[in-house]
Amino acid sequence: MLEKIDLSKGMKRKEWKAAQPEFQRRLYDLQKAAFDNGMPVIILFEGWDGSGKGTSINMLTQRLDARGFKVWPVRAARTYEKNHPWLWRFWLKLPNRGQIAIFDRSWYGRVLVERVEGLAPEEEWQKAYRDITEFERMLADDGHVIIKFWFHISRKEQRKRFKTLEKDPLQSWHIQPEDWEHHRKYERYLKAVEEMLERTETEWAPWTIVEATNQYYTWWTVFSTIVNSLDAGLRARGIDPTTLSEEAVTASAAAAQPAAHAAAAVGEPLLMDATNPAPEA
To answer: Which of 114, 130, 182, 235 could form a disulfide bond with 119, CB atoms 3.0-4.6 angstroms apart?
Structure first.
């Protein structure tokens, strides 16, 4: 499956810079619409170590309303969490109505690192495929929009990135001995990834494979996928997302008009709406 992915896909920096403001404006509008209509959103970032998940999450959240999302960096289960069913700790991180939960790694660790590193018996990680699809189906039936990314890079590209990070004194801490251990097991992880993608690809929670060699193309894929998914989720609720910007502009202008007249009367300067700043170029 993954051997057919074209990892040479790319985008020039100026092309991304031209598209970025509109992506950010559109995503802000869709986040507001999701909040207003109580639509919970789950975004999962999975992928190879060093494939750019963290930088993509940072880029994604730059212009979102911080009150409307939460980023969850997922690590190994703690002792007290192991005393509960294995998905329990993820239940606690699900978004409220209208909120966005962004997972930097997720419940898929059970069928990836826990499988390859022998941290879970085969019986448990085999059962996890059913647990995951049923879990996601239940969330989708409850109205959640589920977006899942797999960031894919080649073994050669991963090694190149590890070497580059190790040479940077400010970034070298990102690369730990376990990262090199995972790199040496690239083929074993590849087999686990392909089985995961095949067995957990569903209509209600599809995977998007991100060709992550070029960071600008990576960001374009992430933004366009999320925008399209939120758009589809709102349409399924009978909401036309194409009217969001027009309605926001009209409402903003109507609200600002009385304030403008009042400010002009007393000679006060007008202030920009800090809750919805204009996107940067």
So the answer is: 114
